[in-house]
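HUMAN:
Could you generate one sequence with tokenized structure?
ASSISTANT:
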Amino acid sequence: MFSGWGWFARNNLQWRTEDAQHAIAEELEGRVLFSRVSIVEFSLPPGSGPGDLVAGPDGNMWFCENGSGKLGEVTPSGQITQYQIPTPNSHPAGLTVGLHGAIWFVEHTGNRVGRFYHGKFREYEIPTAMAAPVTIVAGPDGNMWFTERTADKIGCITPLGVITEYDVAPATSAVLGITSADGFLWFTESSGNVIGRLSTTGQLTTYTIPTAYSWPMLITTGPDGNLYFAEQTADKIGEYYLSGPNAGTFRETPVPTPLAQPEVVTTGPDGNIWFSEFTNGTGGKIGRLNSDGTIQEWSLSTANSGPLGVATGADGHLWFTENTGNEVGYMSFRVKRTRR
């Protein structure tokens, strides 16, 4: 399973501290919080194509390598280890943590659901051929749930590997992102331009996004219990309220950079929503949606990096992958709190 090599990546490290004008200022419990952002990047071999990533139960970050067909693990200090997935050309994606701390993922071209636990892989073939799974999440019922882009289905796999599939969209709707909230599974249909809600017994409801042809990508549940998703072609971050006075409505916030192509959204270490801007692999920014509805963006050091995955680590850093730049890195926040 082990690729046969690992290394301490600090020799390949790139470091940049943002200038003072990039300082974040916001109100927090009656105090003003100032933070300087530092960016650290670790190099991967050419062609790795790192994608989704997640904080593992061991305190390290785990990520998919779309190009090399491996899972990667990076420690907070930058030591990287790779593990070769048994199925060749599997194109792994959609990393998440499941029961007992196992790492679950899907194989977009391998047409399988995978699990990595105690150094061993298990792979489960999806019943529908060429389903093209994209993302996976732990459901409220203890099972793992995943999207099937070309099959327009949501799949459910039990801890024992039994798979059930649900038709959730018309043909070519491109079911992509998935998250769990309020006892349901919520997902995006990119070409269908909707977000959908699926019960664990298969009841389906869909909600049309206000901006036409927005192409929603990945979706997450925010710390406020609402849903957040990236709108790739509309260059917006969408929010769907599940509670409060705005329950059942959308809010969409434009990303300042034109053609930013936001891809992945996550809750950051500061409780705000952070996202990657892929820009056809030629850009290199990480954005933050603030609680007041404004957006801030930070450029990465590597040009044409194609940032893709974003996730909060156990170390309090915001980690990211650079799909075309073949790097994994993090943003750290130097915080000073002062009273008004």
Summary: The radius of gyration is 19 Å. Confidence is low (pLDDT under 50) at residues 1-34.
